[in-house]
Specification:
Blueprint lengths: L15 H20 L1 H11 L2 H6 L13 H33 L5 H24 L4 H10 L3 H9 L4 H21 L1 H13 L19 H18 L6 H22 L10 H24 L1
Helix pairs in contact: 1-5, 2-4, 4-5, 4-8, 5-10, 7-12, 8-10, 8-11, 10-11, 10-12
């Protein structure tokens, strides 16, 4: 039997058939979201272009001229920040549908679902950048000509190395400090404190309860960086020291959080670790395939 502390008691009465049907429909919805991710990528890059800003009537858009530092910042850093912010919202949505719609009965199972889906969407995001935002067309071409897969990886991945380098820098200098600062729980505490009087029962639930480390939220970020390092180590070695710096910062940050902030709620038996290892090995396969395509 699962650990009683790991159970989501409000979902226990739901039948297994109902949960399986809803999990299937939710997985199908996430698949459609991945296929429609092109629109989100195009919107992020469009909002960081001068032509779009001028069309929207932004007065300060004319100050950014080509060749200036502001223009480089707008066209290279801003889209990465927008995409990173969009990806940061996904775990909230994925956990919501797992707990409220699918009716998953344990916290560990919820984190496993969030991990698999949250890792898949950034990888689709990366693949769309490689294929210039045309996932369906690229898949159709690969199905018709499977040998072109290595050619696509060898020709396209080096062209977007700047994006992934910037992504690792943003994760190291923005995401990790954000994890240490934890501004969102602080804002939630302020809002709840101003809204009503806190009772003794309130201290044991919701935002007042002891914070827990959501592995399904944290692991995909680590796996994305290590997959990028595996892929670009042979063709863009500058990515490797940046990835090392990211993991050094993350090691310090999460070690502090695990010791002084997060409180274990229940034991999951290390079940998530097997998925992490499988996806890490998959990243090594992608790195070898990229090297074969470059050669």
């Amino acid at each position: 039997a699962p650990d009683a502390r790991d159970l989501l008691w409000e979902n226990v009465p739901k039948t297994a058939t109902q949960t399986e049907l809803r999990q299937g429909s939710a997985s199908l919805g996430v698949l459609f979201l991945a296929l429609a991710w092109t629109c989100a990528i195009q919107a992020c890059f469009a909002l960081s272009s001068l032509s779009t800003l001028e069309a929207l009537g932004v007065s300060w858009a004319g100050r950014f001229q080509k060749g200036t530092y502001g223009y480089e910042l707008l066209t290279s850093v801003v889209p990465i920040g927008l995409l990173s912010g969009l990806l940061a919202v996904l775990p909230f949505f994925l956990q919501f549908i797992s707990t409220r719609y699918e009716g998953v009965k344990t916290q560990s199972a919820v984190q496993s679902l969030v991990l698999s889906r949250y890792f898949a969407l950034p990888m689709v995001n990366a693949y769309l950048l490689v294929t210039n935002g045309s996932l369906v067309a690229a898949m159709d071409e690969i199905v018709k000509h499977p040998k072109d897969l290595f050619y696509l990886l060898g020709e396209s991945l080096p062209l977007v190395s700047v994006y992934f380098t910037g992504l690792i820098i943003v994760k190291a200098l923005v995401t990790v400090p954000f994890e240490l600062a934890r501004p969102l729980p602080l804002v939630q505490l302020w809002l709840c404190a101003f809204r009503r009087r806190v009772t003794e029962r309130d201290w044991q639930k919701d935002v007042y309860s002891a914070p827990i480390l959501r592995y399904g939220w944290a692991y995909p970020s680590f796996m994305l960086v290590i997959v990028v390092c595996f892929i670009y180590a042979p063709i863009a070695p500058i990515v490797s020291p940046l990835g090392c710096a990211y993991f050094a910062f993350a090691n310090v940050a999460y070690r502090h959080q695990c010791l002084y902030v997060y409180v274990p709620q229940a034991e999951g038996g290390g079940g998530l670790w097997f998925g992490v290892v499988r996806r890490t090995l998959w990243g090594m396969v992608c790195g070898n395939a990229t090297l074969a395509g470059c050669m």
